[in-house]
Every structure is written in structure tokens, then in C-alpha cells.
Amino acid sequence: MGKKKKGGSKKKALKPGKVEVTIKREAFGEAPEEYHFVLADGKRLKSLYDLASALGKMTEDTFKHHVNEARNDFSNWVNDVFKMPDLAKEISAMNNKVETELSILRKMVDKLRKEVKS
């Protein structure tokens, strides 16, 4: 006779495809918790809006930790989590907070305009 499993509080593992579909459907929605971006100063970013907002307040040291000659963590996050390779490529060429913030906000406005028209 097999043992019955007790109803535990274990979370069901998300399938990678499910994450991608959810984020694409809500282009600027929040990423699942396991895909939140944690800045060098400890702040947690859940969405592209959070990133744009944080860039305006971020110290230069924090920005340079994530964006430097060796890497661009923000570009990688945008590409890998939000599946937006065009925006990721655009911000990968940026090396300052203002340009990066403006690129993200421009993309968000463009997306909203398209949604309003449809």
C-alpha cells in the first residue's frame, strides 16, 4: 500500500514557456519574482517601469556596476526576461543613465500608442 502525500505548501515550478507568454502578453507588466532584477544597492526591480524610474534616482556607482565595458546587465534583463531584443540592443549601446531611461520610456510610450490605436 502506497503512502499518501500530505498536502504541502510547495510551490509548483513555473515552466519557462509560461513565463515568456505571460510577459509578452503584458509587455510592460511585472516579471515573476524569480526574475526580478536586484540592483547592487539592494533595490528590487519588477518591471521596465521600475527600471526607468530607478535610473533617475540611481547613483553613478550603482549604474556603473551594472553598465560598463564588460557588460550591460539592464540590456540582458530586458532581452532575457521581457523578450524585447530591439530595446535590449538599443540600451546595450548606452553608457549613461539618462539615455538608458529615455530609451525605455520612449519604447513604453510607443507601445501605449499602438495599444490605444488598436
The amount of beta strand, in percent, is under 5%
Terminal Cα span: 59 Å
The number of distinct β-strands equals 2
Major beta-sheet overview: 2 strands, antiparallel
Which percent range fits the helix content? 55-70%
Biggest sheet, spatial arrangement of strands: 1-2
Helix/strand/pairing class, anyone? mainly alpha
User: SSE order in H/E notation?
Assistant: HEEHHHHH
| Secondary structure tally, helices | 6
Number of domains as seen in the coordinates: 1
Q: Please, what is the average pLDDT?
A: 83
Outline the low-pLDDT stretches: 1-12, 19-26
User: Which radius of gyration do the C-alpha atoms yield?
Assistant: 18 Å
Describe the 3D structure.
With about 120 residues, the chain is mainly alpha-helical. The protein has one domain (about 20-110). The protein contains six helices and two strands. The longest helix is centred in the C-terminal third of the chain and has 21 residues, at about 95-115. Mean pLDDT is about 85; it is low at about 1-10 and about 20-25.
What is the element layout, followed by pairings?
Blueprint: H1 16-25, E1 37-38, E2 44-45, H2 48-57, H3 60-66, H4 73-82, H5 85-92, H6 97-117
Antiparallel strand pairs: 1-2
Helix pairs in contact: 2-6, 4-5
List keywords for this structure.
disordered N terminus; two-stranded antiparallel sheet; mainly alpha; 56% helix; 118 residues; 6 helices
